[in-house]
Amino acid sequence: MGASTAGVFGEGRAAPPPLVVSSYTLGTEVGFEDRVRAAAAAGYEGVGLRAENYWDARATGLDDDAMREIAVQHGVPIVEVEYITAWGTPEDRDAAQQEKEQAVFHMARAFGVRHLNTGLLEKLPLDVMTEAFAALCERAGDDLTVGLEFMPYSGVPDLATAWKIIDDADRANGALIVDVWHWARAGMTPADLDPVPADRIVAVQLCDVLEHPMEPLRAESLGHRLPPGQGYGDAVGVVRALREKGVRPRVVTAEVISDELVSRGVVTAARTTADAAREVLRITAQPRTSRP
Asked: Is the pLDDT of residue 176 over 50?
């Protein structure tokens, strides 16, 4: 695993992280077996699943063992699970939220995934978010790492806020996710990584941004991303900054949420994003060229 990530994130670990296709990249209506086949054909080394994908697969008669076997047979195990939201206040944690949270915990353990993805859309006081994140980490348990993703339109809008929540929550299983789209739209720079220990960044998500932001910004994030290296977010620069920081993520995920790309079919979406991600990693792995 991790052949395409080895030159970037392979140092200092037994094996480089796998290159994974995010659940959203292949669309929300794709059956589990079609998802796995497309990922395998594109050369991905793992797949991500949202709780909704999992429930859909269960509704077709697939249990955990069947899903795990299908994925392993195609060489693309399930290595990413998501997405927990609405954990900021007791009022937000209604029955549906709690059901989804427990489903994500279950998925992680059932498929041997050691981390899970989360974010918080609600804009709450920092101390409230910090206490709530600490409680989420405790509910997850010591065997699971909770990766917090900053999103510029959310209650955790940038890297500094995300790291302060994680640091102040002071839970060993709290960690950070870095997504190129959110990085670019939040205006992050490599200097913003300075306070963050490299080992607290658990996942890196590759994608790219349009030249000009859309309004509302979340609509762009959820339907108009570009393949990494094919937009204006400097995906190579972000990955290079993480590499030079000494980050060794558990997964490197292509998360290209694109209505246009999904409309071209699951096979095309998988191949296009995999090729783009591998090219970004290939360029990043090359020595910097010096200018005369």
From this structure: yes
Closest C-alpha to 119, from 229, 210, 208, 221 = 221
State the pTM of this model. 0.96
CA distance 74 to 77: 8
In whole angstroms, how far apart are CA 221 and each of 24, 192, 213, 290?
A: 11, 21, 10, 35
Instruction: Report which of residues 12 and 190 the model is more confident about.
Output: 190
Listing DSSP states for 121-178 in one string gives -S---HHHHHHHHHHHHHHH-TTSEEEEE--TTSSS-SHHHHHHHHHHHT-TTEEEEE
Express each pLDDT in 32-82 by its tens digit.
Answer: 999 999 999 999 999 999 999 999 999 999 999 999 999 999 999 999 999
Cβ atoms of 221 and 255 closer than 8 Å: no
Q: What structural domains does the chain harbor?
A: 6-254+265-276 (3.20.20.150)
